[in-house]
Amino acid sequence: MVNALTTRILRPSTELAQATDLHLHGAIITPDALLPNGTVIVRGGRIEQVSAVRVPAPAGALDVDTGGLLCPGFVDTHNHAPWAGFRRWAKPARYF
């Protein structure tokens, strides 16, 4: 089963694909912090701002509540996500 976020990534809507001004809301991982309810502002295909608070989109911009985890820019998520954004896995009770 494919969740809604994956569906948006694999098959973006025409509106999302053609938008030049985006306000993406969700939990944001930066190199320095985890922002639980922030906004990534994208203008003209480039990240203009990462905000720690939710910033409503102005008229004409697309406002997207991702419901997910955003990693703007270059973030090495395979090394940083377990320490910055996710709970640590509990040690297994037994190994196979």
List the helices and strands and how they pair.
Blueprint (H helix, E strand, L loop, with lengths): L3 H7 L3 H5 L2 E9 L4 E10 L2 E6 L10 E9 L6 H8 L12
Parallel strand pairs: 1-4
Antiparallel strand pairs: 1-2, 2-3
Task: Tell me what you see in this structure.
With 96 residues, the protein is an alpha+beta fold. The protein has 3 helices and 4 strands, in the order ααββββα. It has helices at 4-10, 14-18, 77-84; strands at residues 21-29, 34-43, 46-51, 62-70. The two termini are 27 Å apart. Residues 1-11 have low confidence and may be disordered.
Q: How much is the radius of gyration in Å?
A: 16 Å
Record the strand order, biggest sheet: 3-2-1-4
Structural class, please?
A: alpha+beta
Q: Tell me how many strands there are.
A: 4
Count of helical regions: 3
Mean pLDDT level: 76
Taken from the alpha-carbon principal axes, the silhouette is elongated
Briefly characterize the structure:
This protein is an alpha+beta fold. The protein has helices at residues 4-10, 14-18, 77-84, and strands spanning 21-29, 34-43, 46-51, 62-70.
Relevant terms:
disordered N terminus; 4 strands; alpha+beta; 96 residues; elongated
